[in-house]
């Protein structure tokens, strides 16, 4: 399947039971809600997916189950976040074997690689597969920035096709366009900057709160790209308090609480994460409940 790097691509959560096993029933409920809302792809195994806590066998189960659920309607993209080049290539080959359509690749984990090491890492991964790749550029959380000069080197790999732009610098979209034109698709990776990024020319949105509010997320994207900016802004202003739950160290717990509130998830997380309690939980629920009470009626789009 060819990936069109555009539109809304949820970085989906992994559903667990109270016994800390995969909850494939609620996982399917959520994936189907995303498809029905009109998302353009599913991204598995990111931070929201608690990938660092999943076993290799669990990752395979999730890939196979997602491929089954989407049934060819949209691509399934696997996040690659490894500590070594060897492990990253193994993860790519394993995911490809089980039906992945493409990859979102982070820089090396833990070790802060320099420019040469980081570009070599990405290029070796790209050369290990023919499937398309999106580079995840998030120096705020991962400590390594993929600079424009590095992208110039990565452009030699034809299957490196897109970037998840999470530098928090909106002007970086214009810098990418000025230097590379449309060589790389650009997808916003920060929920609280999504509409601004789309207006500045981003092709899509790798979203988090979409896990709980898929229709609103897709509506913002489609209205904005149709030039109906005022309508998109009205929804986005309502959405912002929720979107800010994604810019938080407890983003997984926050978003899972929102999924519970909208009926398409559970709050179970895998340790060392723990469900929110007390005042912290009350504050998050207040935001969620207030937003649900004022949930907008979406226009046709």
TrEMBL record:
SUPFAM superfamilies to which the protein is assigned, alphabetical: Aldolase (SSF51569)
Keyword Methyltransferase: no
Keyword annotations of the record: Lyase
InterPro entries to which the protein is assigned, alphabetical: Aldolase_TIM (IPR013785), DapA-like (IPR002220)
Residues in the signal sequence: none
Top-level taxon of origin: Bacteria
Family: Belongs to the DapA family.
Protein name: Dihydrodipicolinate synthase family protein
Species annotation: Lutibacter aestuarii
